[in-house]
Write a structure and sequence with these properties.
Order of helices and strands of chain B: EEEHEEHEHHHHEHEHEEHH
Strand order of the largest sheet of chain A: 1-4
Low-confidence stretches of chain B: none
Number of helices of chain B: 10
CATH superfamily of chain B: P-loop containing nucleotide triphosphate hydrolases
CATH class of chain B: Alpha Beta
Structural class of chain B: alpha/beta
Number of domains of chain B: 1
Strand order of the largest sheet of chain B: 6-7-8-3-9-10
Bound molecules: adenosine-5'-triphosphate, magnesium ion
Radius of gyration of chain B: 18 Å
Oligomer: heterodimer
Helix content of chain B: 25-40%
CATH topology of chain B: Rossmann fold
Number of domains of chain A: 1
Mean pLDDT of chain B: 91
Helix content of chain A: over 70%
CATH architecture of chain B: 3-Layer(aba) Sandwich
Radius of gyration of chain A: 19 Å
């Protein structure tokens, strides 16, 4: 981050915030319809990133399509093989299952591709900086911001304006009542998994483009912060998750930029201190879901 | 019942919650076009009966058939597709969704888009307050308005059988009148209604036939007019009989 040009800081903050907003949204989608904190979301991100790595020599478009496809197929596979059989089980069982799925895929990756980080540069055309108002701003970060805005816009449209979106929102509020009016459980759950897979792939792509590496714990690092963000934002509320993700990502970047150099290594400690304070005063998060109440 | 096969037929239904037997061999029939009430004190098993017919619980014994076909398990979303609209007790509006969205959800299973839209409009005409507040979160409506909304939502699926659980609970008498006006007006459209009530007078006045349930058993049944003032009515209702 070198010098402290405010425009650079702003672009950094917003781009990182946007990535965590998308991460938290991916988690929030699954949580809202299934009440499942899906740890395996991390491996959707990781596997999408490895798909990019595997297709390094290919045209960018191929790599993008492959990573999106990988994450979506993996999301659907985990639903079908691990979560659907447990749908009527209690929440703790589902939580542990998602943890098991996450661990299984992670170890499988380590076993097959090794645990060492591998360099990857999927979007070299976005590497060069451009000048905005005297500041050198990374094109990649601007692209990240645009991609996040586009994803947020598309997701909002889908949830607000389409009938599957309406069904998902109804199921998020009261799954049983939604089924009683005829909403099909499988449709809303599959839609949630497909969308979360898509978001995981977008996050993976933009994240590896910025960091330049893939490794088997890549997704875990991002998604853990995403979980914190959904809790801060308010469990079960999608706008809350997005805002929480943005807040946490932005805060981490700002702390990195603004803390004195000798305190920077403790950035995470400061971040989580703020998180704890938020939860002390707002135990349900900053923007709790209105629908988390008694069901039929 | 006019000798025709009943639309809904419940035979010797037993439902248990662990050690508690909520329904202990209940049999009941609802004919096409009838309004049938189930009354009884708290804990009688009325809600359990409706929720079991709706597919929320599995019977421990006995059977349920609808339009001559046994209802046995299957996904919950099949209930409304069969033609059963269930309005559970407690006014389960989707509180965070708008009034209009709640109504649209009622028409989820409709394939006749244009007709469904016109049907929806007819409810907005019948209840101007719903039109006025169509874009507002349904959770902000009053209790009576929410009750109208969930009944309208149930009707928008164009059911053959509408099941209402305590539609008058917690509502002012004037609002209850409106609810029952709506229910009885529906009979003209050939709708069949099974309604659970604690307000016995109200139920007896609206229903063709009434079942008195107590401690999981049918204690008394008959034409509502004949039950009103029947000598053993109080004993059956309060469980002093049997
Ligand atoms: N989810 C449940 N778990 C355990 N017991 C239950 C459950 N639901 C109902 N019961 C029990 O089953 C019996 C019947 O309950 P039900 O709700 O069907 O009665 P009800 O006639 O609808 O009463 P009310 O008029 O108070 O609504 C009661 O003894 C009740 O305590
Ligand atoms: Mg009840």
């Amino acid at each position: 981050m070198g010098n402290l040009n405010p425009i650079q800081i702003l672009v950094d903050t917003v781009s990182v915030g946007g990535l965590y907003a998308l991460t938290a949204l991916g988690l929030g989608l699954i949580f809202s319809v299934m009440r499942l904190a899906n740890f395996a979301h991390a491996e959707l991100v990781t596997c999408a990133a490895y798909a990019v790595f595997a297709l390094s020599g290919q045209p960018v478009a191929v790599a993008i399509v492959a990573s999106v496809g990988t994450a979506m197929v993996l999301a659907l596979a985990t639903e079908r093989l691990a979560f659907r059989p447990l749908r009527s089980a209690d929440q703790t069982t589902m939580l542990i299952a998602s943890f098991a799925v996450s661990m299984f895929i992670q170890k499988l990756l380590i076993f097959t591709v090794g645990s060492r980080p591998k360099p990857v540069d999927p979007l070299p055309i976005l590497a060069q900086p451009i000048a905005i108002a005297g500041a050198q701003v990374s094109l990649l970060k601007l692209a990240t911001i645009l991609a996040c805005i586009a994803c947020l816009g598309a997701l909002t449209y889908l949830l607000r304006r389409t009938s599957i979106g309406l069904h998902m929102r109804a199921a998020a509020e009261d799954f049983t009542m939604a089924q009683l009016v005829g909403v099909r459980a499988n449709s809303v759950i599959l839609a949630a998994f497909v969308l979360s897979g898509f978001l995981a792939a977008v996050v993976a792509l933009l994240f590896v483009a910025q960091t330049g590496f893939v490794h088997p714990r890549l997704g875990v690092q991002i998604v853990l912060v995403g979980f914190v963000a959904t809790v801060i934002g308010g469990l079960g509320s999608l706008p809350g998750a997005a805002a929480g993700g943005f807040l946490v990502g932005a805060l981490a970047t700002l702390l990195q930029a603004l803390l004195p150099a000798e305190l920077r290594p403790f950035r995470e400690a400061f971040l989580f201190l703020i998180v704890i304070l938020v939860l002390l005063f707002r135990p349900n998060g900053l923007w709790p879901a209105p629908g988390l109440k008694e069901r039929v | 019942m006019n000798g025709r096969a009943p639309l809904l037929s419940v035979r010797d239904l037993v439902v248990r919650y662990g050690a508690i037997t909520a329904l202990d061999g209940v049999s009941l029939e609802v004919g096409e076009g009838e309004i049938v009430a189930i009354i009884g004190p708290n804990g009688a098993g009325k809600s359990t009966l409706l929720s079991t017919v709706a597919g929320l619980r599995r019977p421990d014994a006995g059977g349920i058939s609808f339009a001559g076909t046994p209802i046995a398990g299957g996904a919950l979303e099949g209930t409304v597709r069969r033609g059963i609209a269930y309005v559970p007790e407690g006014r389960h509006v989707f509180a965070g969704l708008t009034v209009l969205e709640n109504l649209e959800l009622g028409a989820t299973v409709r394939r006749d888009r244009a007709e469904a839209r016109a049907h929806l409009e007819s409810f907005l005409d019948a209840f101007p307050i719903l039109r006025e507040r169509a874009g507002e979160a349904a959770g902000r409506l009053s209790g009576g308005e929410q009750q109208m909304l969930v009944i309208a939502r149930g009707l928008l699926s164009k059911p053959r059988l509408l099941m209402l659980d305590e539609p008058s609970l917690g509502l002012a008498p004037k609002i209850v009148d409106q609810v029952y006006e709506l229910v009885t007006s529906l009979r003209r459209d050939g709708l069949t209604v099974l309604v659970v009530e604690q307000n016995a007078g109200r139920a007896l006045a609206a229903a063709d036939r009434t079942y008195v349930l107590n401690a999981g058993r049918v204690r008394l049944q008959g034409r509502s007019a004949e039950l009103t003032g029947a000598p053993d009515f109080d004993a059956a209702y309060f469980g002093l009989k049997d």
